[in-house]
């Protein structure tokens, strides 16, 4: 895990770019037909002895091919490469492909801490308190910010089993899903709540409103998301939820224009989370709403999202040195439960040849505060937290 001190410090990386939305005026039937023509799966590239002998030079020599294939398939699984078994080698790999690191879209939320800050490398969700938590399919995205690419690396697979990395093609999911449901969600749009604070319903309304206003003014802005504070949106009296603004469930890829399933409902819908292993405290539980009425998605709609999404999951048993390179607008990812200890990490990348998309902002130092506070709280959770929730 040692960094190469001869390399420059990347901690002043680019801000995660703003989300590129292009979802207006879609004909759903035609969008599904177009997605079906493009639907693909993860491309697997296995290292030969000759490839390993080249080290980082392999990736420099094949940069154009890798970029082309990533755009075509949405994800590439590099297997058996010795180079990426170390932090320094992993960095050589993505620098050879000329990817430019950026902050995690949710950096300020504290969901991930750095494995090696000077290498722009975040720890994945390896916390013992969350090893019993199934992470559903999602893009590393909010309505406000989305990384262009990601590279997930395995340094240590789960010592007692499990922890497979999940990846699925957003075009394949869109093509698969019931047309009536896609049309319904497209017409009504969705909103996602990202946290809960339960205020005792016995508190007078003015106190509940005061808490809501305080959170809205003092806490929400630090999450760098477009959030609205709402009380009782999911029907639970006194529950304060931070809810993202309305978004389309599908989007056109910024480069190819291919329509894709582009949302985090498979991971965030409460009716799905409550029916699978979940080790997240109530404050971190999420929910998905129809944006026009703020009703939660029905179980029937959630089950169709589950069916279509999981039909196209590829579960990767990654070994040390394996890297999954992902187009974050095309492929969705997740993680199965695991036992023992596991160490995977990830870097996020911005647009490299389009300054308008990339933005001009470098990393704002003030974003670090919330990240460190929340990670400190999560580190104190007991290893078997998930079993306490059953």
Automatic annotation (TrEMBL):
Keywords of this entry: Oxidoreductase
Domain TauD/TfdA-like, chain residue ranges per copy: 62-344
Entry annotated with the keyword Oxidoreductase: yes
Pfam family, one: TauD
GO MF annotation terms: oxidoreductase activity
Signal peptide segment: none
PANTHER family: GAMMA-BUTYROBETAINE HYDROXYLASE-RELATED, TAUD_TFDA-LIKE DOMAIN-CONTAINING PROTEIN
Keyword hit for Zinc-finger: no
Official protein name in the record: Clavaminate synthase-like protein
């Amino acid at each position: 895990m040692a960094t190469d001190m001869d390399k420059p410090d990347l901690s002043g990386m680019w801000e995660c770019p703003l989300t590129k939305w292009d979802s207006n005026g879609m004909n759903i039937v035609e969008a599904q037909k177009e997605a079906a023509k493009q639907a693909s799966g993860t491309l697997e590239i296995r290292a030969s002895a000759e490839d390993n002998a080249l080290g980082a030079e392999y990736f420099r020599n094949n940069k154009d091919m890798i970029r082309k294939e990533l755009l075509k398939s949405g994800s590439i699984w590099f297997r058996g490469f010795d180079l990426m078994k170390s932090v320094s080698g992993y960095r050589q790999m993505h620098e050879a492909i000329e990817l430019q690191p950026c902050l995690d879209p949710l950096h300020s939320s504290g969901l991930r801490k750095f494995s090696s800050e000077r290498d722009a490398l975040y720890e994945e969700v390896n916390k013992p308190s969350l090893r019993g938590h199934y992470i559903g399919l999602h893009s590393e995205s909010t309505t406000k910010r989305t990384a262009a690419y990601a590279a997930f690396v395995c340094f240590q697979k789960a010592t007692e089993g499990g922890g497979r990395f999940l990846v699925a093609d957003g075009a394949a999911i869109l093509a698969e899903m019931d047309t009536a449901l896609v049309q319904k969600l497209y017409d009504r749009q969705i909103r996602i709540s990202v946290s809960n604070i339960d205020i005792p319903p016995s508190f007078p309304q003015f106190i509940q409103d005061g808490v809501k206003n305080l959170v809205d003014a003092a806490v929400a802005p630090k999450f760098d998301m477009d959030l609205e504070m709402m009380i009782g949106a999911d029907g639970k009296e006194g529950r304060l939820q931070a809810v993202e603004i309305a978004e389309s469930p599908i989007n056109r890829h910024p480069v190819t224009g291919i329509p894709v399933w582009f949302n985090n409902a498979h991971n965030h819908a409460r009716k799905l989370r409550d029916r699978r292993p979940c080790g997240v405290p109530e404050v971190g539980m999420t929910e998905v709403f129809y944006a026009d009425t703020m009703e939660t998605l029905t179980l029937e709609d959630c089950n169709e999202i589950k069916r279509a999404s999981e039909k196209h999951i590829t579960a990767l048993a990654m070994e040390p040195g394996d890297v999954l390179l992902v187009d974050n607008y095309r492929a969705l990812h997740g993680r199965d439960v695991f036992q023992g200890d596991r160490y995977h990490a990830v870097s996020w990348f911005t647009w490299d040849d389009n300054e308008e998309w990339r933005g001009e902002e470098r990393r704002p130092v003030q974003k670090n505060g919330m990240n460190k506070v929340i990670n400190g709280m999560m580190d104190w959770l007991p290893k078997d937290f998930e079993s306490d929730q059953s």
